[in-house]
């Protein structure tokens, strides 16, 4: 079945692959191209806003699962897969969580992060095999990411996951897609045709990144990884982050900078340093 907006005759239209609203791009000036891309990009935040009720529904089901030891698996191919891997990879340094709690899987494996892997996304079975290799269980969540909503690698994994009682969600740029049919909570972010026809790395990719930010950040806040508005569990992986953490402790405890820095380095995170100081 092709993914798309249903018409009166029962066919589906892939909105994400409809012709661009602009033509003769090669004849435009750089300024015209940039202005038109920006005009299209402004539509993305509104499309994401319309999807917030579904994002909320998904997050509210993820949090209790993660509190019981569950994980999130992002699954996608091409741009969508890369964005899932990107969001997952930023969780440990930002929130001090192990890299085993939010996991990005991309069709074709790590090679596909930089290079296309022929036919990888067309393998309906491989996604579920990769989830089984990671001992997926019913506390976990599988979130498929595909602008088209038709990627077999993702659909096959979601279908099997759901049949095993595992929560499934998805992020797509087309309504009523085959991928959404396999999701307990489908997130349909309809951004319209791309500036370059079919180039879903553009508006669709931007919207996917925004939604992934929303999902992971809201989950981490709900799991207590943020205090006030600060990343109190961030990894101290460079001088900039040590300085940022030191200033958080100065602000919270009223210590001088060097005292705060020593305390931070002794305990390894802002939260641990503050808790230890207050426990004296």
Structure characterization notes:
This protein is an alpha/beta fold and 280 residues long. It has two domains: 5-222, Glucose-6-phosphate isomerase like protein, domain 1 (Rossmann fold, 3-Layer(aba) Sandwich), CATH 3.40.50.10490; 239-278. 48% of the residues lie in helices and 10% in strands. It contains eleven helices and seven strands. It has helices at 30-50, 52-67, 78-89, 91-95, 126-133, 152-163, 178-181, 203-222, 239-253, 257-267, 270-278, and strands spanning 5-6, 12-13, 72-76, 102-106, 141-145, 167-172, 185-188. The strands form two sheets. A five-stranded parallel beta sheet has the order 4-3-5-6-7, with helices on both faces. Helix 1 crosses helix 8 (203-222), helix 3 packs parallel to helix 8 and helix 9 (239-253) packs across helix 10. It starts with a strand and ends with a helix.
Short description:
This protein is of the alpha/beta class.
Give a topology summary.
Elements (H helix, E strand, L loop, with lengths): L4 E2 L5 E2 L16 H21 L1 H16 L4 E5 L1 H12 L1 H5 L6 E5 L19 H8 L7 E5 L6 H12 L3 E6 L5 H4 L3 E4 L14 H20 L16 H15 L3 H11 L2 H9 L2
Parallel strand pairs: 3-4, 3-5, 5-6, 6-7
Antiparallel strand pairs: 1-2
Helix pairs in contact: 1-8, 2-8, 3-8, 5-6, 9-10, 9-11, 10-11
